[in-house]
Design a protein that fits this description.
11 strands, five-stranded antiparallel sheet, six-stranded mixed sheet, single chain
Length: about 250
């Protein structure tokens, strides 16, 4: 059974003549250890899909299941607990707290979940070191490069060992070198660490790191491209050519 599965997922904002359909009958799945990229033009429903998968919004119709559990069946308390413990969120603009250093920023999910401060910081330190920030543990966000800030954000997302990692344009605020490093890291998070990763991106070069690309247009899945069977040096070409279907 896939770790993440949606069936006929539909989201409509507003009513009557002003109603806007953000998603229309989207059925996708993500396996543990798989990196899936979602691409499509602005307004196609990419962010709405992430919000529904993360339990941040409710669908108008259809279902979201994570690890076999329907999000619609969970109480508000259970849903909040699921978001804290089973889902890691990574954003384009990092969302780090300026007055906290790297360790304290990364430790936040465990601290908010009631874990002892010493234990939370120790785990954050170990993870940040694993992500190549061992020499930057005491630095605040304004003392880190954009790529380093995103690594702190990734450590924060991974600290609770979530089953699912949702990344919304995680390289959109980075230069090309840092973007490649972060995309490679997310690939490692899936393939080596075994997490399911769903990444929204507009960049075919970054999408080429994925096992599979799902293309959305007008809230509907119009195609999927399986990159796992394509040679590494041909993946970016495949990722660039496939979106022609969206035009």
């Amino acid at each position: 059974m896939p770790l993440v599965q949606t069936e006929n997922l539909t989201k409509v904002y507003g009513k009557g003549e002003t109603a806007v359909t953000a998603l229309n009958g989207v059925s996708i799945s993500v396996e543990s250890g798989e990196l899936v990229a979602v691409m499509g033009p602005s307004g196609c429903g990419k962010s709405t899909l992430l919000h529904l998968l993360g339990g941040l919004d409710l669908p108008t119709k259809g279902s979201v299941k994570i690890d076999g559990k329907s999000l619609a069946s969970l109480s508000d308390k259970e849903l909040a607990q699921l978001r804290r413990r089973k889902i890691g969120f990574i954003f384009q603009f990092f969302n780090l707290i300026p007055i906290l250093d790297a360790v304290d920023n990364a430790a936040l999910p465990l601290l908010l979940d009631g874990v002892n401060s010493k234990q939370a910081k120790q785990k954050a330190t170990e993870l940040l070191t694993k992500l190549g920030l061992g020499a930057r543990l005491g630095n605040r966000p304004d003392e880190l490069s954009a790529g380093q800030q995103q690594r702190v954000a990734i450590a924060r997302a991974l600290l609770t060992d979530p089953a699912l990692v949702l990344a919304d344009e995680p390289t959109g605020n980075l230069d090309s070198r840092a973007a490649d490093e972060i995309a490679g890291l997310l690939h490692e998070v899936a393939k080596v660490w075994g997490h399911a990763v769903l990444m929204v991106t507009h960049d075919p070069r970054i999408a080429a790191y994925a096992d599979r690309i799902v293309f959305l247009k007008d809230g509907t899945v119009v195609s999927e491209t399986n990159l796992a069977s394509i040679a590494a040096n041909e993946r970016e070409t495949a990722a660039r050519e496939a979106p022609a279907l969206l035009r």
